[in-house]
Amino acid sequence: MQKLPPELIRARTCYKHPAGELGIVITRALLRRGCIEDAGVKQRHGFALTERGRKWCARYGVDAHLPAAPGGGARKDAGRLFSVSCMDHSHRAPHLAGAFGRGMLSFMRARGYCVTGAGDRRLSVTPQGAAFLRAALGIDWGGVQHDG
Q1: Per-residue pLDDT, 26
Q2: pTM score, whole prediction
Q3: What domain range is 36 assigned to?
């Protein structure tokens, strides 16, 4: 396997969701805060959003791409799993993928919390993004170091 450059190990996209250290620390923080829980084989090794997670999404304005409530209209992601666990090949640790992972990346980009590199998968967390990660998830992004 080809070794990734340090900046891609730190933060990158993976099928339209955050990966690398960024994806891993977001996933761990959501688990630690009880916003998501391991759904195991119920969702092919995915994550389930908890009631606490729904409130967290509402508080910060994250479109979690939730499946429609019973009796509600169809959503664009209705045929896909809500959230799957994607193994990060640079760290061998899971990060959030699926509809919720895509929703998190979309939210972070729309708010200017992260920007993508020109023509590649590289992500850079902005100062506003670092402030969001600290306030919303308890992540000190400046203090996270890569293992590479």
Answers
A1: 93
A2: 0.80
A3: 6-140
Contact call for residues 47 and 39 (beta carbons, < 8 A): yes
Are the CB atoms for 96 and 46 separated by under 8 Å?
A: no
> Which residues lie across from 17 on neighbouring strands?
14
User: Measuring CA to CA, how many Å separate 148 from each of 7, 21, 28, 62?
Assistant: 10, 11, 19, 31
Q: What mean pLDDT do residues 24-47 have?
A: 80
Residue 92 pLDDT > 80: no
Whether the per-residue pLDDT at 83 is higher than 90: the answer is no
How many domains in the chain? 1
Is residue 130, in this structure, part of any structural domain at all?
yes
* The two structure tokens encoding residue 148: 């590479």
CA nearest neighbour of 113 among 99, 124, 102 = 124
